[in-house]
Amino acid sequence: MRTQVQNEARRQGLRLWITSGPGLFWIVLFLLIPSAVLLGIGFFSADDYGSPILPVTLQPFQQVAGYSLLGWDDGNIIIFLRSLAQAGIATAVTALLSYPLVFFIMTRPAALRPLLLLFIVLPSWTNQVVRTYAWLELLGPNAPVSWLAHALHIVPPDLGIAPGTFAVTTGLAYNYLPYMMVPLYASAEKLDWTLVEAGRDLYASGLRLFWHTVFPQTLPGLLSGVIFVAIPAFGDYVVPQLLGGDRALMIGSLIANQFTETPDWPYGAALTIIMLVFTGAGLVAFRVLTRKLGGAGEATI
Amino acid sequence: MSNVVPRRVRAVLAGISWPVYVLLYTPLALVAFYSFAPEPNGVGHSLHAYNVLFHDGDVFVALQRSLILALGSATVSTMLGTLLGYGLCRFRNANARGFLANIPSLVIYTPIIMPSLVFGISELIFFNFVHRTTGLLGAGLDTMVIAHITFQVPYVALTVFARLAGLDPNLFEASNDLYADGVKSFFYLIVPVVQPAIIGGFMLGITLSIDDFTISFFTAGPGSVTLPIYIYSAIARKGISPEINALGTLMIGTIILFAVVHFLITKGREGADEYSA
């Protein structure tokens, strides 16, 4: 009897490996091992061509902190803070836009809702380069919006709103709006409206009603949305590259430069490690927060 | 349910939302508008840029590569992802706890969580190293296909897994009782039942592949320029030209056309889970 149970368990394990093995192996071989190698490179020295060589050192991290042959420089810290601020503002903008949009769609006739949601998500199905450079047409030096900015003396003449910090924020919010919308819509669909009615019967109204009945119920969706927006926005490459210029350099471009234009792989790898530490810390913080607030019970693997 | 929302609030919601809809499409509309730029030294509108575009052989080669990349990677990732989702749903010991039992989940979520820049650079270094030591996998369309498969597999697996997890477990019992072995039950029960999820996963894979730039950019070689890379380097070299706008217009138009057709076909099914950003 016992051996039969064991045999069955073994067969079950074998089936698991036959079906799941290839996919898992693929991801391990082509992503986990390469990223482990990348992180490892952060602890090597660089040769004249920027390739990693022995000895093992922490010098790349000193470079990240801003120390170089020329002394200390605050450039990297500013870039880090700028990236955090850009990601934070873009996330806040998407959240502030998503709430009215979600409830606007929810209060439309049922037949219209899928279409309205589709039109929010649709731009994200085009290529990221296309939908990002499209903003150059709207915010570039020769665009009407920039003439307005010139007239109001917000932007010096001959320059556009893009490239610049504001253009990057706009581009990030535009790119990642659907990532906030979809989880928020999913949690709003499950909203228990009787709670809202109960709140109204207790003479709560306006913002108070929203804050005490709607907001807590949509919080799991909001928190998922924050993760889906903030993490890719923090490390985004295309948007700051196309809409940022030198004045709005973000961590993504700084890392990419160490592997393309001015190769210094160990330095780039050390920057990546720091970026992943920030990302991971944010992720863990939000997971703890979601759990504490009784997060969404979605079907998870 | 939604009649709880007072009329005044609805008016505010609409007042915020319609401008956002307009704003979402303004940049895309401008791309289309500027694509009808006049001929050099001309005025008004013309199809000049489209004419130039259609006589540019590089664009067609890039388009061909983009299609091979999207279809090829989505096909492989659908096969790997379907098996992965199926295996994890059916054969994983649900009572197992601890780190080892969580490894599959960790592996599956890594490509989703990892910023695409880190993803792309990891692949760049890895392929570079493999190429230098073995002579295999030089940067090109092969390496791009491999990278695209890697980021699509988890999404297909999750789609298939979600569908299977929502099924009645009695179905599997019934198929066992009818003496179907594993392979038979996979092809005669699972594949038909999960077919919508498999097709959905395949479409999702294509969408992800078309949307991606960063990972493609770092895994591409000199001879594997795809449409997004073509546009990016054209803008970096000489700024936006009417030809680039024409190309962008065609790409946006194709996506909108596909989305509308898809919507008309699947009309009636409602819910946020239909869409993936």
What features would you describe in this structure?
The complex is a heterodimer of chains A (301) and B (277). Chain A is 70% helix and 4% strand. Chain A is mainly alpha-helical. In chain A, β1 (44-46) and β2 form a beta hairpin. The two termini of chain A are 32 Å apart. With 277 residues, chain B is an all-alpha fold. Chain B has a single domain (56-274), classed as MetI-like fold. Chain B starts with 6 loop residues before the first helix and ends in a 12-residue tail after the last helix. At the A-B interface, α1, α3, α4, α5 and α7 of A face α1, α3, α4, α5 and α6 of B.
Which helices and strands appear, and what pairs or packs with what?
The complex is a heterodimer of chains A (301) and B (277).
Chain A: H1 2-41, E1 44-46, E2 52-56, H2 59-65, E3 67-68, E4 71-72, H3 75-106, H4 113-121, H5 128-139, H6 144-151, H7 165-189, H8 193-201, H9 206-234, H10 238-243, H11 251-257, H12 265-292
Antiparallel strand pairs in A: 1-2, 3-4
Helix pairs in contact in A: 1-12, 2-12, 3-7, 3-9, 5-7, 7-9, 8-9, 9-12, 11-12
Chain B: H1 7-35, H2 48-54, H3 57-90, H4 99-113, H5 116-134, H6 141-165, H7 170-177, H8 182-211, H9 214-219, H10 227-238, H11 242-265
